[in-house]
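User: I'm preparing a small set of examples for a lab meeting where we compare how different chains pack in three dimensions. I only have the primary sequence for this one, and I'd like the structure in token form so I can line it up with the others. Please keep the answer compact; I'll paste it straight into my notes.
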Amino acid sequence: MNGNPETNEFTLDIKDDSEIFLEFLSEVQDHLEESESNILSIDNENLDYELINAIFRSIHSIKGSAGFLGLTDIQRLSHELETLLDKARKGEIPFTKKITTLCLDSIDILRTLRDTLSVKVDMTLRGKDDAASSTHEQSVDIQPIINRILTMLNGETDTQPQSAQYKREDHITENEHIGEFLVRNSIITQEQLDTALKEKGRKLGEILIENGTVSQDFIDKAIEEQKRSLWKPVGEILVKNGTLTEQQLQEAIKEQKRKVGEILVDNGVTTQENIEDALKTRQARKEQSRTVKVDTDKLDNLFDLVGELVIANTLISGDLKYGCNNENGSNKNLSHLSKITKDIQDQVMSMRMVSLKQTFQKMSRLVRDVSMHANKEVELIISGEDTELDKNVIEVIADPLVHILRNSVDHGIESEEKRIASGKRKKGAVKLSAYHKGGNIIIQIEDDGTGLQKEKILNKAIDKGLVKEHSVMSDNQIYNLIFSPGLSTAEKITNISGRGVGMDVVKKNIEKLRGKIDVTSEEGKGSTFTIKLPLTLAIIDGIVVNVGSTKYIIPTISISESLRPRKEEISTIKNQGEVVNMRGNLFPLVRLHKLYNIDTKKTNPWEAIVVIVETEEGKFSILVDELLGQQQVVIKSLGDTFKGVKGISGGAILGDGKVGLILDVSGIKEAALAA
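Assistant: Understood. Below is the structure token output for the 675-residue chain.
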């Protein structure tokens, strides 16, 4: 909007007519998403003119409302795009792939204009003055895109280079990284971001050598020792053998954890003010997305259920107040109350559920843009987009999906020449599907590309000390090594993928949602990533265990198996501590009673139960007294008192009315390391 600030004069006051502005923002967002989806659905060979009509109507609505509010930039761009679409729907110009690209680019600019207005409205309603809010507005020059539309209308060729078009794919995620945000808004260049990411991705050893704290020789020895240990980080080894002080380690870790924004400011690429403005703008967008549309039928059902709850409460209160001689009647009322409570729980949960449709549609745009940039023809086949998931889960799952799909198109799908040479059709295929299974949501990304190279992954893992040289591993275990930190099999890093965020981060983000990811592959035929997610973050399925008199809940999704080991299967290995030998695999043993200082009589593993759990760093085992059964529990916060306790993620009221502590298995591992 700063492109032509003198032309944008609001006809209404944002504070006085805030509802009109908020409604406009919501409507424009819906129209743009629908238009983008319709544009991507257009088949240039079998043109559906009704789709073009639908896009035309959406853009026409945006133009009308923008004109009413005095938003001249949105009105001007919408008008020119509307003219282009009008000619296309009348058959006066062919709806070519170039027009498709031009329409998508125009949608992107309109979206940026909408977002800029959104930030201004948000800051105004928060009481920020105009001067402060104006500094957070993005500079958007609409003239270049209008010129391209006019060129197309005049029958001339659009000369916009394809590489520039690719930049728009960064729009697809609301949780975009600050670096990408700065690139998209032309505050820094892609090259400057790549340099900063490379600097951010430095290993601890590199920082220590660069700082002159230790020599390469000490780092090499620490890495050798690390290979003999399943857990110990290099920094910890160096502190333990006296090479490094704890303070020096913390300073190096602090340097390692520098944010991209700090590096960019230190390098003189941008200013602290620009970083802060970008962060505020991004935060404002996230906060605006904290709304969810609810079907009025669901609200009506909830209203009816609350009415029934009041009646049930009255009946039970009457039984208690006046005494009830009819035991069957009281039981019936209690049973009715239980049913209503369960129905209300289901209804409220369903109100938080939204379909994956919008997220999947954004992935269509991603695959289109990435395949164009990589000079590949790739078809995205979507199924199950109506599957519903908790809104909070959907907001977080978008980033992992983006990363996997980028990799699938950029690294997974072969070039056209290689596909033809191997007898495949020249157009690659990526299937994105979602479905329910066993009370969970399964999202699968399947490509028909080159597949993962088993030997290459294994050799890299051995080189990095992640597995021992002669370890016996199944194919699936080898493929899943790609989720290990720092292990990449990509032959080259492109500006599409391989920019510092690895599959380990993808796995970590999915595990934060209490989900799991697994990969299967067949060399030459393709790979399949399977993401398993809970329906909601508020309730989990867990196994209740006890240690002494304390009860814990281990999330079922983290459990691999449980067993009572034989005495000879327990041993102690130098630098690894206690381990359980399971069919030749050694799993480090964490004694929960020792970790949390609990009195118990079952201190011998062969008299108790060992639960094998899985984290992003691999499997390990937890020693508990016994398993008490499976239960669905509502997660409750334990408050500030237990905030710093590692390995405990919350509490839950159990069937006997007592509190059970929910274990965070990754935190358990960290707590065991720190102990």
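A couple of notes for your slides: The longest helix spans residues 97-125. Residues 1-6, 131-136, 161-176 have pLDDT under 50 and may be disordered.

User: Perfect, thanks.
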